[in-house]
TrEMBL record:
Residues 30-59 are annotated as: NMP. It is found in: Cytoplasm. Its EC number is 2.7.4.3. One of its GO terms (biological process) is AMP salvage. It is an enzyme of class 2 (transferase). It holds the Pfam family ADK_lid. AMP binds at T31, R36, N57, L58, V59, G85, F86, P87, R88, Q92, R161, R172. This is Adenylate kinase. Pathway: Purine metabolism; AMP biosynthesis via salvage pathway; AMP from ADP: step 1/1. Catalyzes the reversible transfer of the terminal phosphate group between ATP and AMP. Plays an important role in cellular energy homeostasis and in adenine nucleotide metabolism. Consists of three domains, a large central CORE domain and two small peripheral domains, NMPbind and LID, which undergo movements during catalysis. The LID domain closes over the site of phosphoryl transfer upon ATP binding. Assembling and dissambling the active center during each catalytic cycle provides an effective means to prevent ATP hydrolysis. PANTHER family: NUCLEOTIDE KINASE. InterPro entries: Adenyl_kin_sub, Adenylat/UMP-CMP_kin, Adenylat_kinase_CS, Adenylate_kinase_lid-dom, P-loop_NTPase.
């Protein structure tokens, strides 16, 4: 299957992408991984991306699209892939369609993870990270530390990252609504969109997604 995964920040796209890719035996292709791999390997596209990023500028669509196309052309993606974080806007979606059409293939589904805005803010703004080890992550509501402000694992101080503040999260949501959300309508016109609730246990959301991708639109 060739799938695009969309949803607002905090919807759990990365988590669901990993589980779905494993269940479907297709590679999980994320924008972040593409950038890191190309930059670390010193590819021409990686060098271009790094130059823009070092200058504090956004990486142009054509560079991102080039990285994605190179990755989708790899042998392990011959029978499908799951795109996470790409396309990010309608112009990227159009370029993706053109690239796939040129190869004589097309997308099978666009999985839209739906989460109420207030829940997104609650999920992200409630995160607390250990200053000693950023892999120690807690949540004030869903997985609180035994002692407020103190890491259960190492006793380090817990803090809220600047980009996890409610104000920043709401700004990120505004960007999502204005830039990325329009691709849902773009793909709806092609009959590709499957929308599911991303609320509840991770395993429940994964099962919901698998059912929906198999054609159970009532999932």
């Amino acid at each position: 299957m060739r799938i695009v995964l969309v949803g607002p920040p905090g919807a759990g796209k990365g988590t669901q992408a990993a589980y779905l890719a494993e269940n479907l035996s297709i590679p999980h292709i994320s924008t972040g991984d593409l950038f890191r791999a190309n930059i670390s390997q010193g590819t021409e596209l990686g060098k271009q991306a790094k130059a823009y990023m070092d200058a504090g500028n956004l990486v142009p669509d054509e560079v991102t699209i080039g990285m994605a196309k190179d990755r989708m052309d790899q042998p392990d993606a011959a029978n499908g892939f799951l795109l996470d974080g790409f396309p990010r806007n309608v112009s990227q979606a159009e370029a993706l369609d053109a690239s796939l059409n040129a190869d004589g293939v097309k997308l099978d589904a666009v999985l839209d993870l739906e989460v109420p805005e207030d829940e997104v803010v609650k999920r992200i703004a409630g995160r607390r990270i250990c200053k000693n080890d950023s892999s120690h992550v807690f949540h004030v509501t869903y997985s609180p530390a035994q002692q407020e402000g103190v890491c259960d694992t190492c006793g380090g101080e817990l803090y809220q990252r600047g980009d996890d503040s409610e104000e920043t999260v709401r700004r990120r949501l505004e960007v999502y609504h204005s830039e990325t959300e329009p691709i849902i309508d773009y793909y709806k016109a092609q009959g590709l969109v499957v929308t599911i609730s991303a609320l509840g246990k991770v395993s429940d959301v994964t099962q919901r997604a698998m059912d929906a991708l198999k054609g159970d639109r009532a999932a």
